[in-house]
């Protein structure tokens, strides 16, 4: 738990809540909604409780409850009203805000209730594309601004992964007979697999046969499939690894491996733009996003 961020600047609060720092200050002065502390060097900072309270306030305010009314609620009433509203609403923006609240409070119950409510109106595919992807994009921005700590990201990512796995398992019995097998894996030292797991779900949804090998896989672990007589398509996703200065070497190794194998290889991610100038085998296909790949499958 040492990685949990406990103190936040007003800029952190702005990044997380979407409420401008100027507005937050007005809410403080006019309604006493937040009470920031000051460091020994007189710098204002906010606690985790302040952040949670602000997210609660934003959720209520976005649903037409006036700040003046919110300011009269006790802390307990504020929490109860927010939880009830989060359970009732199915709007994407409010759901995303509720997911942020779940993440920073480590509230699994809130996450599951928001998810179950979304399921009443949306398919899992729609939930992932319309709610989870925008939410994960917000998480990425919070990483960039150093607002988020690993414990928060790990908590929420694991909950989303669980939903992908559950929904993929439900489809396994519907897989059609297919001569083509998709082998999905992440490069060595790469651990960010939500995108690849969702792609696996999309492939299974289409009736494809997939083999998911998971995180951090050295290329030589693919030898078994290279020697197979079956029609094989390898798929990997690049987010962090391999390092930028080694990515060309990585793809040259893939090229040697694939060129005379009769297999195909697909790489997804913005990092593939760094190797599009290479003279790679026509069996190697590069796509910037999962959506781009799904259009041609």
UniProtKB/TrEMBL annotation:
This is MerR family transcriptional regulator. Transmembrane segments: none annotated. GO terms for molecular function: DNA binding; DNA-binding transcription factor activity. Residues 7-76 form the HTH merR-type domain. It holds the Pfam family MerR_1. PROSITE patterns: HTH_MERR_2 (PS50937). PANTHER family: MERR-FAMILY TRANSCRIPTIONAL REGULATOR, REDOX-CYCLING DRUG-SENSING TRANSCRIPTIONAL ACTIVATOR SOXR. SUPFAM superfamilies: Putative DNA-binding domain. Keywords: DNA-binding, Repressor, Transcription, Transcription regulation.
């Amino acid at each position: 738990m040492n990685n949990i961020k406990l103190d936040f600047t007003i800029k952190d609060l702005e990044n997380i809540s979407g409420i401008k720092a100027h507005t937050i200050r007005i809410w403080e002065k006019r309604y006493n909604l937040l009470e920031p502390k000051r460091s020994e060097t007189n710098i204002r900072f906010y606690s985790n409780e302040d952040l949670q309270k602000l997210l609660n306030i934003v959720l209520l305010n976005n649903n037409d409850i006036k700040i003046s009314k919110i300011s009269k609620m006790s802390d307990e009433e504020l929490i109860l009203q927010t939880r009830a509203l989060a359970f009732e609403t199915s709007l994407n923006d409010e759901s995303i805000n509720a997911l942020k609240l779940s993440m920073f409070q480590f509230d699994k119950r809130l996450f599951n209730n928001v998810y179950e409510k979304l399921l009443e109106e949306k398919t899992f595919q729609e939930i992932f594309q319309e709610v989870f992807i925008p939410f994960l994009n917000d998480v990425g921005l919070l990483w960039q601004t150093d607002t988020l700590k690993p414990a928060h990201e790990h908590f929420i990512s694991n909950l989303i992964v669980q939903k992908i796995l559950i929904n993929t398992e439900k489809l396994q019995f519907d897989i059609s007979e297919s001569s083509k097998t998709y082998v999905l894996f992440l490069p060595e030292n790469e651990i960010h697999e939500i995108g690849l797991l969702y792609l696996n779900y999309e492939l299974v949804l289409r009736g494809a046969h997939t083999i998911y090998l998971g995180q951090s896989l050295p290329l030589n672990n693919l030898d078994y499939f290279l020697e197979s007589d079956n029609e094989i398509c390898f798929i990997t996703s690049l987010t962090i690894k391999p390092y930028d200065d080694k990515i060309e070497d990585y793809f040259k190794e893939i090229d040697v491996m694939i060129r005379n194998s009769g297999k195909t290889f697909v790489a997804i991610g913005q990092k593939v733009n760094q190797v599009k100038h290479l003279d790679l085998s026509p069996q190697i296909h590069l796509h910037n996003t999962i959506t781009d790949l799904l259009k041609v499958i």
